[in-house]
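Predict structure. Chain length: 434.
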Amino acid sequence: MKTDILVIGGGASGLTAARTAAAAARKKGVALQVTLLEKMPRPARKLMISGKGRCNFTNLKPWNDFSTHIEAGSRLVKNAFYNFDSAAAIAFFEQEGLRTVVERGDRAFPASHRASDIVDTLVRSCLGEGVKIVTECTVTDISFDAKGRFLARCADGSEYRAQTLILATGGLSYPGTGSTGDGYRFSAAFGHGLSPTFPSLTALVPEGYKESGGKALKGHIPRETPLSSLGAKLCGVQLKNIGTRLYIGGTCVESLFGDVDFTDGGLEGPLGFAMSRKCVKALMNGNKACVELDLKSGVPDGEFSARVTALWKEQGGRLRNLLPRVLPRELTAAFLAAFGNTVKGPGTLAAALRAWRFPIAGFVGYERAVVTAGGIPAPEVNPKTMESRFRPGLYLCGELLDIDCTTGGYNIQTAFSTGALAGQSAALQLCAES
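Prediction complete.
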């Protein structure tokens, strides 16, 4: 099967690349066939589950603020962002008939709070531009035919030939959605390298949080590992407006304020995810990591100590009576399990509440990580076009690249931006040659 532009991967970046390529060619009055291959039964399975099914699809911060939330690859994203920024993403969905809303932290969602509406809109727009979408089509190998065209061979025996190829296969996170690292192998065949990959925006597992079965748990700890007694007491607790400090090798490397969730995976929520990248990388490099929670970070030390001392006297040092006055009730059992034998007076109690330390044993892996850190190195891609510096006619975009961001809509927007620039560049190049 012959096509002009072949897109492999039907996620956020792939759908955007295909739609933008077809639209750019149409505006130039050139008839180009764009074909998108997706291995799953329907496109954008990962997008469907983003934001717990609500899909925080972009963030309206201007570039100077937006870029501070990009952990790696900001130089590669900048041109793509200015070409198709957050406002352009919102305008696209609104023009396609999907209402959007902006919530706290400049985060944009579909007004319906259904991720499926984002996916349906992208697919409908692609089809409206004449893009051919082929699902349940797993590409196994990419090479060249006798005419120098890209040749993609598929598991079902089909073959696709194209002048231009866009790789949008994603990374390794949530492999159940189809992201299994295929693009790393495909791009390596064209000479591309790979920055070390690791899971990011994932649960951190404190020591003693999971049943060890008599073995030391460290590194990748599967989410399904049973909770320990302490883990069961903490699981489900959501803490609002607290302070956190991340220690790597005994040095505080990050201090944050916000919300933390204890889940069946471990430490999650906005702050858990925010600390996970540095923490996972440190653990993989053999360093020790510890998360410290300050449950009363909004209260001055002197004022808080005086309050605890007064409560201690009032309750005669009875912790079970005192703790509900200074802790969320659902956290009391876990606090007693962790500190019941060490709290001897108001001073040690105040200190424990201001610095509850959780040495980190490991992390939940790609099976439930929101994003993959690492990927195709930024210097190997032209930031003005997203074209490979090694192979003309090859474009790369999305999570396949060494680009990852914090939570808040930034990762999906970078997928939209890099996909749009790749699709536009590929189409305009072919239009110029026709």
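Summary: The longest strand covers residues 251-262.
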